[in-house]
Write a structure and sequence with these properties.
This protein is an alpha/beta fold. The chain has 9 helices and 10 strands. Helix 2 links the parallel strand 4 and strand 5. The radius of gyration is 19 Å and the shape is globular. Bound molecules: iron/sulfur cluster.
C-alpha cells in the first residue's frame, strides 16, 4: 500500500484495487461489527471522524498528490456516515484534489438503503464512483448463521440501488462460509444472487477462520466443518454453474483462493468450469496455490 503522510488508526483495510489510492479514514471501525467470521474491526468502536480532521488530512496531501486519481474512504462501512458529512468530504476532495477521478467506499445494505437511490445519486454527482459491498452469500440460512444482519432480498435491493444511482458496484462473496453441510446451497444461491444483482465486478474470496472470531470457535469445537481445498473448488464450480447469463468481470484470484481465476463472463465461463473439473478430477496439487502462500 502506498504510504501517505497521514496517521491512521490501525488496522487499516482497503480493497486490492485501491492499492494506489489515497486512503482517507473518515470513519473508524464498522458500525455493525457482528459478523461471525470477521475480525477486521473487532478492536475498534465505530465512530465518525470530525470533518475538520479529514479536511486537514486532505490539505496535507495536496502538495504530494499530483499523480493521484483515486481516493478510498475507510474504514469498514464509511457509507454509514450521515449524508451531509459524506457530501462535505466529497466536496472537500473535489475542491482540494481536482485531479481525483473516483472516490470509493465500503458499504453494506443498511447504509446503502438508508441513502436510497436519490441520496446515492447525489453522492455520485459529488464524486462517489464505486461501492464495495461484501454480501458474502445469496443464501438466507447462511446469512442468518453468520449474523450478516440482512436478508438476501435486502442485499439485492441494496445492489440495485447502487446500480440505479449510476455508481459502480463491486460485490464479494465468501466460498466455504456455509461449511460442508451448506456448501452447495450457499454456492448456488450466491451464483443466482450475482446474476440478479448484476454488479460491475464480482469476486469470490475463500473464508479463512481467524482466531478470536465466532466462526473460528465453531470450527475449533467441531460445530462447523469448512470445505477443504477440493471442496472449495467444487463450490466455485457450483457457483459458476448457477451464473448462467451473468455478464461482467468475476474474479476468484484473491490471496485466499486456491485456484486464481480472472474471468470475463459469459465468455470464460465454460473454459473455467472445464479447468476446475479437470483439476478436481486429477486432484492436481500443482494447479493450486500452496497453503503456506495463501493469505486472508
Ligand atoms: S464483514 Fe463487514 S459488515 Fe461484517 S463485521 Fe466485518 S466489516 Fe462489518
Amino acid at each position: 500500500m502506498k504510504r501517505w503522510p497521514l496517521v491512521y488508526e490501525e488496522p487499516l483495510f482497503r480493497p486490492p484495487s485501491e492499492a494506489d489510492s489515497l486512503i482517507l479514514q473518515v470513519t473508524v471501525g464498522c458500525s455493525w461489527n457482528r459478523c461471525t467470521f470477521c475480525a477486521m474491526y473487532r478492536s475498534k468502536s465505530f465512530r465518525v471522524r470530525t470533518l475538520a480532521e479529514v479536511e486537514a488530512e486532505i490539505q496535507a496531501v495536496v502538495p504530494l498528490a499530483a499523480p493521484l486519481t483515486r481516493v478510498f474512504l475507510a474504514d469498514g462501512d464509511a457509507l454509514a456516515a450521515e449524508p451531509a458529512y459524506l457530501e462535505a468530504v466529497l466536496a472537500a476532495v473535489r475542491a482540494h484534489l481536482p485531479q481525483v477521478q473516483r472516490v470509493g467506499v465500503y458499504g453494506d445494505s443498511r447504509a446503502i438503503l438508508r441513502h436510497g437511490v436519490e441520496g446515492l445519486s447525489h453522492l455520485r454527482d459529488l464524486g462517489l464512483g464505486i461501492v464495495y459491498f461484501g454480501v458474502e452469500s445469496g443464501d438466507e440460512a447462511t446469512l442468518r448463521a453468520v449474523r450478516k444482519g440482512a436478508t438476501a432480498e435486502r442485499q439485492l435491493a441494496a445492489c440495485r440501488a447502487v446500480r440505479e444511482a449510476g455508481i459502480k458496484l463491486s460485490v464479494m462473496v465468501l466460498l466455504g462460509l456455509a461449511g460442508t453441510a451448506g456448501s452447495r446451497r450457499h454456492a448456488e444461491a450466491s451464483g443466482r444472487f450475482l446474476v440478479a444483482a448484476a454488479p460491475t465486478y464480482a469476486a469470490a474470496l475463500t473464508v479463512t477462520p481467524v482466531p478470536g472470531t465466532e466462526l473460528w470457535q465453531q470450527v475449533e469445537d467441531g460445530r462447523l466443518t469448512l470445505p477443504d481445498r477440493w471442496g472449495t473448488l467444487e463450490e466455485l464450480a457450483w457457483m459458476l454453474e448457477a451464473m448462467d447469463g451473468h455478464r461482467g468481470l468475476f474474479h476468484a484470484n484473491h490471496a485466499s483462493n486456491y485456484l486464481p481465476l480472472r474471468l470475463r463472463l459469459p465468455r470464460d465461463r465454460e473454459s473455467a468450469l472445464a479447468l476446475i473439473r479437470t483439476v478436481l478430477r486429477e486432484r492436481d496439487e500443482r494447479a493450486l496455490v500452496p497453503e503456506w502462500a495463501r493469505g486472508l
